Amino acid sequence: MTDHASTAQHFPPLSQEFLQDEIDALLPQVIGWRRHLHMHPEVAFEEVRTSQTIFDILSAIEGLSVARPTRTSVVAELRGQHTGPTIAVRSDIDALPILEENDVAYRSRTDGVMHACGHDGHTAIVLALATLLARHRQKLPGTVRFIFQHAEEVAPGGAEELVQQGVMDGVVHVIGLHLWSPMPVGRIGLISGPAMAAPDTFQCTLLGTGGHAAMPHQTVDPIAIGAQIVTALQQVVSRTVDPLDPAVLSVTQFIAGTAFNVIPGSAYLAGTVRTFDPGLRASIPAQMERIIAGITSAFGASYEFSYERGYRPVVNDPALTARLTEVVETTFGVDTLIEMRPSMGGEDFSAYQQRAPGVFAFVGARNDAEGITFPHHHPRFQIDEASLGIGLRYLTAASLDLLTKS
Ligand code: NI
Q: Does the annotation count 326 as an active-site position?
């Protein structure tokens, strides 16, 4: 960074205006990559073909050194020819176990698996970013690490594994994005500070005594007990959490019984807890268990309870968010930016943020006029592909800013 001034004298700095024509020229390729990935989706930890495709594309790009840190992930490194910081750009690559209901030429060719969250788009965007920046490595200061991460959708997630493999070593800033169907195409959303929640999960088996439905007095009915537990668990957030601290407790599974005239011996409850605050997060499992223990013991049943911590919350570095806000405003104009509210959804991008300041951005992908309105993880989820160009332009501008102005 010391020879920055002299570098600039000999090499005109890369500007996004300079790259805009190239971005436009790359768009058909980006759409092609995205559609190819869309046709061949693979679920978390099974991205064998996907990672091979990514590896092959990156290996053909001059100037990149490409590695496979785990069986189904890919990381490429681009060393610019001038001194500068190391930054990381992350894409996730996994799909979901959903049967696609879209009738498009590039519909999933694997029944029951679908890119229903937009990770195919993320991958195509970051492949294009690598292509673009590698072309200009003679003028580029610093190093860019392109992370193609497996298994975002399933805990424990791929991010933590890649961090353990050292992909964040030496990185000073990390950025990533999500194509976002609730937001209209053409807009970019940033959130300063806490952005996405910690998604924990719980399971509880209620052990009663089964018997004839007509003789309930001879049973310990786990359905009646479970219903009270579901109701009482609503009090955890509404009566014990500070109303100004975001928290969600949802019971999403209640499984019991086999016949109308049989009281079952057990019932199964499961669900998710979402929080931001670490202290609150730590206190909730014990509160839940107190309720479960109290109600089961009051009615003579017993229970098994387990609580699993998911990803850490995504917390965007405020200084870096301010900087990228400026990047969005300069690149696209002030009307593009949406200062978003945090989401109770989870993301393992948080694992990278443990190692360096990072910002996770949201790129609008919705188009009401075209009927592209279905939510993420829906069998008819789609993106407006214009979002791919916007995402690429954002990451290009952001990368150049982080590499040249540290
Ligand atoms: Ni996603």
A: no
